Amino acid sequence: MSTSNRRTFLGTAAALAVGTTAAAAIPAANMEKKYPIVHHVFFWLKNPDSKEDLEQLIAGVKTLSKIETVRDLRVGVVASTEKREVVDNSWSVSELIFFSDLAGQATYQDHPIHQEFIKKCSHLWEKVIVYDAVAV
Prior knowledge:
46% of the residues lie in helices and 24% in strands. With 136 residues, it is an alpha+beta fold. A four-stranded antiparallel β-sheet has the order 2-3-1-4, sandwiched between helices. The protein has two domains: 1-32; 35-134, Alpha-Beta Plaits (2-Layer Sandwich), CATH 3.30.70.100. The protein has helices at 3-34, 51-62, 102-110, 112-121, and strands at residues 37-45, 72-77, 93-99, 125-134.
């Protein structure tokens, strides 16, 4: 590869990397504007060592995406990040749901799919904490 072509290639690659990084940030910013209501739930399993219980809870949480007012749903488990005093990694499964408005979040609460999830999965957890927030 000639020096000129190499410089062009490296310049193009660098520009592509910067553009990709910038583009990756756009969905997060747009998500906040489009779906300002956030419902974040943390579940502690009764049997934290049970893979079956974990899989059943994850599958149950994923059914909530079928509720028409749920704009985006993310399901997570504890990440193997650095142990620090401010990090709580005692939970088993998290659910992060985005709504367009408070009315959508209220619809979700009473929705038959949500009620069925609670009925089928509540025996799996010993503790649940909910954090609801609105973007500012």
